[in-house]
TrEMBL record:
Protein name according to UniProt: R3H domain-containing protein
GO CC entries: membrane
UniProt subcellular location: Membrane
Cited Pfam families: ROH1-like (PF05633)
Transmembrane segments: 261-283
InterPro entries given in the database record: ROH1-like (IPR008511)
Tagged with keyword Transmembrane: yes
Annotated region (Disordered), positions in chain: 187-217
Topology term for the membrane: Single-pass membrane protein
Entry keywords, A to Z: Membrane, Transmembrane, Transmembrane helix
Family label: Belongs to the ROH1 family.
Chief localisation class: membrane
Length: 411
């Protein structure tokens, strides 16, 4: 009996030991399988992300035919560019923070932590560009107000008198002064106001408080300096240079060491840089400058389309009629051309109006009205998109820093 009891009790003990070892092996295999699954899903996510970025920018590059509303650097095209950026930003966020625990732990390891740190630094610098671009959108809104005054004076189908012409001339003169001021500001940092920021929700913007036409000096005086605004010495050209500084593609060993995650980080950094550069090119900004070096290895599937867009925008900036403009936005060029043509016609008007001259004046007013309507319909949505870009960049950076902190100090 004692022997039997001993043997009987020894069999379950051996079985328990084997069970513990078996469970332990299963746990180890489960962890390895999980890490391999994270790697596999991460690779698929990276490849899909690269392809989607390529498709988005190929679409932007092809949407530049003069027969479409999405002509390069038009309001419609810039809004499409921002939509593409927001899509890329959301997918990039999913790759980094929507993965398994094993992959998240990798975020705090070298060299990926350095790539992420550099990217978040670029993101902070991009916030200032968003603030400056928003201020540029508000300047365009001021231009539109003067256009509306001129159109109200000359439109309506009523007979024109001296008073109507004087009011239209005055509005177009104020517009010309504003545009000249903006051109000077685009060429240097000596601007007489500071840009507003997205950091103070609930504040009514200046253009909602202004009632009359006013002069250029009065318009500029209504700007207020809020938190996160850029200073008088701030330069869009220098900021772009800072965003693109040391933006280099990861080497093969760095890609392998980061499970491929260095690739989407570099991709998103390049997309961020190009989008900020394109915004500064299109919208009036303080001390604009487009000379920033932009180079992407052709091995990336999206490189050709982004490089092509950059080259075409830069070539546009060198055209004689655009060289001294305060922004390359297509509608800015139309405002300059149409307002100048209308001013020249008004200077030649003599009463009584000849039928031919009246028809020519009416046609010029219609052309200006088309541009004014495009600005009226497009500026508010554009400003909302720039605001959304600002908030998404800020939110993603905060989430990324928190994720890095958790990965470095796991509970």
């Amino acid at each position: 009996m004692p022997a039997t009891d001993y043997q009987g009790s020894s069999i379950p003990f051996a079985s328990v030991g084997r069970s513990i070892l078996s469970i332990r092996r299963d746990q180890v295999h489960a962890v390895v399988d999980s890490q391999q699954h994270d790697c596999a899903s991460g690779d698929l996510g990276v490849e899909a992300f690269q392809k989607h970025v390529a498709d988005l920018f190929l679409d932007l590059a092809s949407a530049s035919s003069s027969s479409t509303a999405d002509e390069l650097l038009s309001l419609a095209w810039v809004r499409k560019l921002l939509d593409s950026f927001l899509t890329c930003q959301e997918e990039f966020r999913g790759i980094l923070f929507g993965c398994g625990r094993g992959q998240q732990m990798m975020l705090s390891r070298r060299p990926l932590d350095r790539f992420l740190s550099d990217f978040f630094d670029r993101a902070v610098k991009a916030l200032d560009v968003c603030n400056a671009v928003r201020d540029g959108v508000d300047q365009l809104r001021q231009w539109r107000q003067h256009l509306e005054i001129a159109l109200a004076a000359l439109g309506g189908g009523r007979p024109l008198g001296e008073g109507h012409l004087r009011r239209a001339r005055r509005a177009l003169t104020d517009l010309t002064i504003l545009m000249l001021d903006d051109k000077e500001a685009a060429g240097g940092p000596a601007l007489s106001h500071r840009n507003r920021s997205f950091g103070r929700p609930g504040k009514e913007p200046p253009h909602h408080r202004r009632g009359g036409s006013g002069g250029a000096a009065a318009s500029l005086g209504n700007f207020r300096s809020l938190s996160w605004s850029v200073s008088r010495s701030w330069s869009a050209a220098r900021q772009l240079q800072a965003i693109g500084n040391n933006l280099a593609a990861p080497r093969g060993n760095e890609v392998a060491a980061t499970n491929g995650l260095a690739v989407p980080v570099y991709t998103m950094g390049s997309v961020l840089f190009f989008v900020m550069w394109a915004l500064v090119a299109a919208i009036p900004c303080q001390d604009r400058g487009l000379q920033t070096h932009f180079s992407v290895p052709r091995t990336f599937p999206w490189a050709a389309s982004i490089t092509s867009l950059q080259e075409r925008i830069f070539e546009e900036s060198k055209k004689k009629e655009r060289k001294n403009s305060c922004g390359l936005l297509r509608e800015i060029h139309q405002v300059e051309k149409c307002s100048r043509h209308l001013s020249e016609l008004l200077d030649l008007v003599e009463f009584p109006l000849a039928e031919e001259k009246e028809m020519e004046l009416g046609q010029a007013v219609e052309e200006l009205a088309v541009v004014c309507n495009v600005l009226k319909e497009g500026l508010d949505p554009l400003e909302r998109q720039v605001r959304e870009v600002f908030l998404r960049i800020m939110r993603s950076r905060t989430e990324g820093l928190e994720c890095l902190s958790r990965a470095r100090d796991p509970e």
